[in-house]
Amino acid sequence: MVIDIVNKSFLLDKSQKIYLIEKLKTANTLYIQSIIWIIEEENNFMLTLLKKYKEDSNNYSIWQLKWELITKNFEKIRNLEKQEEDDFFDIDKELELT
């Protein structure tokens, strides 16, 4: 049971899981219970975050944020185009002036 709980951890990588499983083989009951509690809390936290993400993506908050970013980028592009127009070099006008 404890090995399954450790293997279900989202945040531990493979080597950390192996180390922790080996450590648990010689650990006392209190240590084992605390590890189980910590990993179960971690899993609950991660599942809560994933559910929140799913709810947000079903809503419009993520799409709204994307739209705001796109809009800001379009504004930057428009501003650059305006600057280029201001600095536009008109060869015909330059030739008339000389």
Q: What is the strand and helix layout of this fold?
A:
Blueprint lengths: L1 H6 L6 H12 L3 H30 L2 H26 L4 H7 L1
Percent of residues in beta strands = under 5%
The Cα radius of gyration reads 29 Å
Tell me the series of helices and strands, N- to C-terminal.
Answer: HHHHH
Individual helix count:
5
Dominant shape: elongated
Structural class: mainly alpha
Estimate the mean pLDDT confidence.
Answer: 77
Relative helix content: over 70%
Low-confidence segments, ≥5 residues, pLDDT <50? none
Amino- and carboxy-terminal Cα gap: 89 Å
**Largest pleated sheet:** none
Number of strands: 0
Q: How would you describe the overall organization of this protein?
A:
The chain is mainly alpha-helical and 98 residues long. It is 83% helix and 0% strand. The chain contains 5 helices and no strands. The chain is elongated, with a radius of gyration of 29 Å.
Short key terms for the protein model shown above:
elongated, mainly alpha, 98 residues, single chain
Summary, kept brief:
The chain is built from 5 helices and no strands. It is mostly helical and 98 residues long.
